[in-house]
Amino acid sequence: MASWFGSSGSRSYRLLAESEAMPLLLLFFLLTLLGQAQEVEVSLFEGGEGVDFYRYAARRLEESRPGVSVLLEADPAMADKMRMRVLEGNLPEVSNASIDIWALIDNGDVQPLDSWLDQKAVDGESTWRETFLPGSLSQFQKDGKTYGIPLVYVVWSVYYNKALFAEHGWETPRTWPEFESLCEKIQQTSVAPIAFQGRYPFYAKALVEHTYFQQVGRERYLELAQGQPGCFDNPEMIDSLGTLQTLSQQHFQPGFQGMSHTEAQLEFFQGRAAMLFCGSWLFSEMRDNIPEGFELGSFALPLPVSDRADPAAQYATSGYFFVFKSSAHPDLG
Fold first, then answer.
1. Mean of all residue pLDDT scores within the chain
2. How many CB atoms lie within 10 A of CB 181?
3. What phi-psi label fits residue 144: left (phi over 0), alpha (psi between -120 and 50 degrees) or beta?
4. What is the pLDDT of residues 43-73, one digit of tens each?
5. Is residue 9 in some structural domain?
6. Which residue range forms the structural domain that includes residue 33?
């Protein structure tokens, strides 16, 4: 998932466009980009939101275009599979896997989508571009071209056990120093301060990028997203990584390094940790494992002590879809 920042006024956790239009949006791009291809290969990361929606969209595509079939593969480890396919030069038509997409964009392997984004949407009034939340398309834009289509919008938060906080009189913090002070109080109990999904660097990336953005602002953050030189060798990045290091060494639950996302999240819901960093897919991902009566609370990711820090800027992520020109049907891509 790629990340971008929006104001607190857009913190609702919802699809990027109206829910009834979303299957038509996906169908629209597949139909117009892939033309008469007999088989459309779609390689999906299977995350907390599930894949039922995408299977529904695939069925709609097949129903609307006889003779076209959708080969849809979904896997939590799709990013690893896609990296191998990049090395092999064997890319699917469409994927949302989290890989080094900028290298592929710079290499000319990704299809710009602007000519379709600027066509009329299903309501006949707006363009497709206008149906997306402000800022969501800018994440994968370069030289006036748009390469990625986001479908799901989620905001990262600190989730906490409300009953546990009420029992001990703990207050939710706003800054990292306040957060670390809270963790020290929690450590005086039998509960770990933070359950953490240590097997997946993706969760650490969110904390580092959030803290970095709040110190350097939008322009330098975009340079980081594009891997520009010097992004990791500066005081703000060192401070952001230092925040993560302090949390991991002093406040993460023992054994976090070997925990998957669901294992760490289960530790939190079973009351063995007081807090958890996660995106807003948490409830749908863990709904079958949340104890009855569990009081789930959340607060914004803490801010670093910086004159640039903006509490209205929230760290959000989205699953972006890309169409590959170097797929099996480059002439139709």
1. 86
2. 12
3. left
4. 998 877 778 888 998 898 888 888 888 899 9
5. no
6. 14-152+319-323
3-51 tens-digit pLDDT: 555 443 333 333 343 444 554 555 555 555 555 557 889 999 887 777 8
Model confidence over 193-217: pLDDT tens digits?
Answer: 999 999 988 899 999 999 999 999 9
- Residues 153/133, Cβ–Cβ less than 8 Å: yes
- On whether residue 71 sits in a domain, the answer given is yes
Which tokens sit at 163? 């009953």
The alpha helices in the chain, defined as continuous H runs, are: 22-34, 52-64, 78-88, 101-106, 114-117, 162-168, 176-186, 201-216, 218-225, 235-250, 261-269, 282-286
- Using DSSP's 3-state secondary structure scheme, residue 108 falls into coil
CATH number at residue 203: 3.40.190.10
Two tokens, residue 39: 């088989």
Which pair of structure tokens corresponds to residue 219?
């322009």
Q: Tell if the pTM clears 0.85, that is, is over it.
A: no
Distance CA 72, CA 137 (A): 24
Total domain count, the chain: 2
Same domain, 148 and 201: no
